[in-house]
Amino acid sequence: MLLGLTLPLIRPALAQDFPRAIRVIVPFAAGASSDTIARIVCAKLADMLGVAIVVDNRAGAGGLIAAQTVARAAPDGATLLWGGGTAITHAVMGRDPGYDVLRDFTPIATVVDNPALLAVRTSAPWRDHIALLAAARTAPVGGLRYGSGGVGTPAHMAAAAMLKAIGADGTHVPYRGANQATLAVETGEVDFAFAISNIVIPRMQHGAVRVLLSTAARRIPALPDVPTLKETVPNGPVIVSGSSLVGPGGMPPALVARLHAAVNQLVRSDSALRDALTREGGDITLADSPAAYAADWPQEVARLRHLVELSGARVE
């Protein structure tokens, strides 16, 4: 009852501290899994704050255009980026992204991490990861064909790192997003693909693919019998697609703190949202503070740079 009395008082106060409209740039096409999560969270956040939040899809150049747009925006909170991992990935992929990833962004809040899942078509001869890895080791020159949602994506790095760890070759076939990569598995265009969990799990539930591995740090509750890459191959990496909120560098700390508090309050108070985020493999990852999220960035830059070197997944 007290919460009901105070929320109407909180909302106008919050709205006064924010721009009249906020544009959240999503570095993926409309309908992609990350776009769906962004739209759900942003719609609820707009209602909570009493401000207009518009989702703007900028999928060009693998999300680099989205990251550059936010890096060059005014630090007034009117332009934000969904998914800080995109900015970090382009900073370590072997070309100048046009920004300094540790200077030109302000980490605000984290929401959820989704692992990639290794999927094969249901009619494939490999019933488990052991059979698939054995086939990869003994495949002719060029190896098995594997798909991903694009060059340098977490899915690409996961597959490249896995094959390198077992001493196998493979032919990478990049697609325009995880949906297309998963469809290529179903049709037999590629032998396997890593794709984000909330794309793969519904296809698995419809009997279109079989899931053999996960890139999560631990087995996910949605698929407790599916082993992780970490536990099955030497130095198997943990690779997740993080949904988070990031702004341009130099944003006022007070504004950042209010945005962070609003995101955390929303996720903690909305059980339906939490269920939507986790039912298909997501792991909710609310940072304790903007500073805590920001402190992770240098480590994540170093980790992804190592992963790029390990996997050989580079953009020339």
Describe this structure in words.
- With 316 residues, the protein is an alpha/beta fold.
- It has 12 helices and 10 strands.
- Strands 1, 2, 3, 4, 5, 6, 7, 8, 9 and 10 form a 10-stranded mixed beta sheet that branches.
- Helix 3 (64-71) packs across helix 4.
- The chain is globular.
Proportion in helices: 40-55%
The ordered string of helix (H) and strand (E) elements is: HEHEHEHEHEHEHEHEHEHHEH
Structural class: alpha/beta
Number of helices: 12
- Cα Rg: 20 Å
Instruction: Detail the poorly predicted runs.
Output: 1-16
User: How many β-strand stretches?
Assistant: 10
Question: Which strand-content bin applies to the residues?
Answer: 15-25%
Short description:
This protein has 316 residues and is of the alpha/beta class. It has twelve helices and ten strands. Strands 1, 2, 3, 4, 5, 6, 7, 8, 9 and 10 form a ten-stranded mixed beta sheet that branches.
Task: List the keywords.
10-stranded mixed sheet, 12 helices, alpha/beta
Architecture blueprint of SSEs:
Elements: H1 2-17, E1 21-26, H2 33-49, E2 52-57, H3 64-71, E3 79-82, H4 84-91, E4 105-121, H5 129-138, E5 144-148, H6 154-165, E6 170-174, H7 178-187, E7 192-196, H8 197-205, E8 209-214, H9 229-232, E9 240-248, H10 253-269, H11 271-278, E10 283-284, H12 290-311
Parallel strand pairs: 1-2, 1-3, 5-6, 5-7
Antiparallel strand pairs: 3-9, 4-7, 4-8, 4-9, 4-10
Helix pairs in contact: 2-10, 3-4, 4-12, 6-12
